[in-house]
Prior knowledge:
Strand content of chain B: 15-25%
Oligomer: heterodimer
Distance between the termini of chain B: 16 Å
Mean pLDDT of chain B: 81
Radius of gyration of chain A: 28 Å
Helix content of chain A: 25-40%
Largest interface: A-B, 36 and 27 residues
Amino acid sequence: MIETITPDVCGSRKRQAWALLFFALGALVASACVGALLGLAGSRVAAWALPVAALLALVGAAREGGLARVPLPQSRRQVPEPWRFKLPLPAWAAGYGAGLGLGFLTYQPVATFWVACAAAVALGRPLAGAVCFAAYGAGRSLLLLLPLRRGSEATAIVEALSGRRGGVLRVNAVALLACAALLAAPSAAAEPIPLGPGSHFDPSTIGPAFAYTQRNLGVSSVIVLPSAGGALQYPDAESPSLDGELLAYQYAAGIRIVRWATGEEVGRVDGVTSKPALDWPWLAYRRALPDRTLLELRDLTTGEVRRLGSVPVGADLGRPSIAAGRVAWHAAGSRGSRILLYQIGSGNKQVVMATTIALLSNPSLSSTRILWIKQRQGISTAFVRKLRRTRARVLARVSSQRTFYWTTDLYGLTAYVTRWTVVGGAARILRIEL
Amino acid sequence: MTRRSFLGRLGATVLGAVGGGAVAAAVAPEEAEAFHFCGHIFTTDSCPSPYRLPRINRAGYPLRPRDGRPIDNLGRLVNGSGYPINEAGARLIGPDGRPLPKGPRTRICQDWVAERFHIDARIQGSWYRCCNNQIRKLVDCCSRSRRRINGDAALRGYCYAPRNVFCVMYYDTGIPC
């Protein structure tokens, strides 16, 4: 095939340049599509795909390192030669590029391509898959483009590579080992944040500080960890929500808003109120009445109060989250659960997602994304998606009848998820990079 | 000889011939749960449920297969009001020290199957077998889908036309047999 794209076959150097351009386009588009489709398929598989892909990478490394003899799935077809005579130059050149860019239609001398396929499925990110696989198409194209600059022929490069097969195999073995390590690494990224004794939950973060509820020996307190160092403790308090220099938290008589650095009180909401979410001047919180639970939104500067939601006693109205002019919360009961979103500016309320069979809970918002927990059949999953999109991505998953995910927070590209165990009740906060 | 015991003995004979007595013992008729569940061997698969075995109550809500105690969709034991409880019957406590709120508890066929497979599903046909010394009612979850939960062609079973069996569940009646 390489001999095909020459001035003699194409008719002139100008036509050769066009053929190379179309070849590169075909290879790039085809390989990017393969990566995107694998990532799309992977977004529907379980989290165990990551360790499986890491294992495949190890097996591939062992194969290329000469430690194991593992056959590869192979298609030894070549690009169809008749295209060159029947089709116009842009079509056959792009077709040849696409045929090679797809990867699985032609011979693969090493296992790396197949491991990359498994990794793309395991990561489950179509865009990342497309970008990574486009590099494969680019590599195929460079093999034709580089000799032009050097004044040599592509066949010479191929023959040189064949002569250094041992080195090529070693490079692939090292790359596959690195791939295995990277594929195994995400589980470490979801490890609990070391926060000391007791249970830790209700994470809330902003740039200069991180806050959470600490429960130790049956007593709850709010801890604020400034990024500058040190720790501030608010005893007999829980459910913190940070907004700049302000902290809202729940205490025995209602909700207090203070400057977290000094403890100076800025405002309070009395009554049977709980689970505050602060984005000054707006404060969303839950209010319990004898027969209902309400979700209210208060303008702390004017005193205006809006009722966002209401459920009867027995149903759950979850911890709200507020960011960029939106409020998100969950409503759940024995008949199903919903995640709702309220636009403060327009007053529009919408159901983001609803189900009759799963428990959707504890959403959190950033300016562009929403994160939530879905529980069903002993599987607890943290999902995240962009607000303008509909497709969600699995962020973390735990399969157990005893371990669940709980409250969450989202700040920029960092997610915080509480994981707790029913037996013993210990809760830990996980930090996960998106 | 019932169909179940016949198939069990046939399977045991075949496996015994190729794999020895240890393997044959694994498929004795009394241990037919290994195939699917007692009263139902290797045909239409179970409906999705909190546990592997789709045990339901009379109204189609999920029960824990082991002891028939009511569970919610997350597989947690629940009390009469639907609140999650522990084995001793006390309300489950969340990490904040407060009792956990109710989770969804919905019908396996009409709600679970309908939402997960986007089909209109309902309980229609049923038949009975003797399992663990009590009468077990085996229940067809019927839909208009031409495919059953296994992915292959659905059969009419005990469903009314034009519905076919999509998946199966069971209800232990408690009546001795």
